[in-house]
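BUG: 3D viewer hangs when loading the predicted structure for this chain

Environment: internal workstation, default settings.
Expected: structure renders.
Actual: progress bar stalls at 90%.

Input used:
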Amino acid sequence: MKKSIFLFIVFMSLVFLIPSVFSRSFLFSSAEVKNENQENNTKEDNTEEPYDYSQYATIKLLHKDNQSIEEIPLDTYLLGVVSAEMPASFEQEALNAQALVARTYTLYTIINSNKHENADICDDSSCCQAWISKENRLAKWEESLRDENWSKIEKAVNTTKGKVITYEGNLIDAFFHSNSGGITETPAGVWGGTNYPYLQSVETAGEGAYSQYSSEVTLSKEEFKNKILEKHSDLILDYNAENPLEITEYTDSNRVKTIRVGNVNLSGVEMRTLLGLKSTNFTFKIDGENIIFSVIGYGHGVGMSQTGADSMAKSGSNYEEIVKHFYTGVEIVNM
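Structure tokens produced before the viewer hung:
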């Protein structure tokens, strides 16, 4: 009888104890999973985590206006480049592409160029890349757009943080320009020399919708002649001749490679510079006492077209697809 009572007590104890043990085990497991998930989510959401750029963590930026040199973190510098080089109204993926291109161009310049004796790069777009301080950039935007615009710039730099563009394992010289006029140019077509395999001529749709696509310059015959004489004092130009001006050669992308003016032959690039044309993709006509130049595109035409990037983004392309369209055979890698 006593044995039966003892067994009954043990049995009842187990009935109440086992569920409690299992219940506590489940709670601890759930808590551990919850904590692990929270930790993972925190890591994923932390887009502001600094990136270790090793010896390129900071750069020496030359301000051309006063010749001062400022040391600035690389990605902080890129905020000023992206906001100076591309309109914040452009699509986010286009801005992302610009940030990636600008980072690659910066590091390529630091490693391969020696333009500035005591600085890595300058803030002059005609020499290196445009740059503007956050304070000055915000001041140029409408007050109602400042927060939204700057948020897009920050997102572009942070989304591409640590990423660069390479070809066969090496950084590319990531040229870019405003508007290609529908087709990009090769380096040899602009500067001569040898082409880079990743800077091929590619077509881009949708650029005609942008204000940068077309422009016109009208000069009197006298004004035109004087501009050429500034660099070519031996010029003989007779407007009564059968062809006083003649385009004699085009590049593969149909830009002007050489043009004859009277007895002088000029490159399309030199003509663009002398006349202040927006690109070398131009035609002309003599109308009475004036010469009218009709221009397509804006910039040298090599590498990524910024309006082309925006057009692609509007059509659904992401920044990696945009970059790989304009730079042939490249890879996007983490530094």
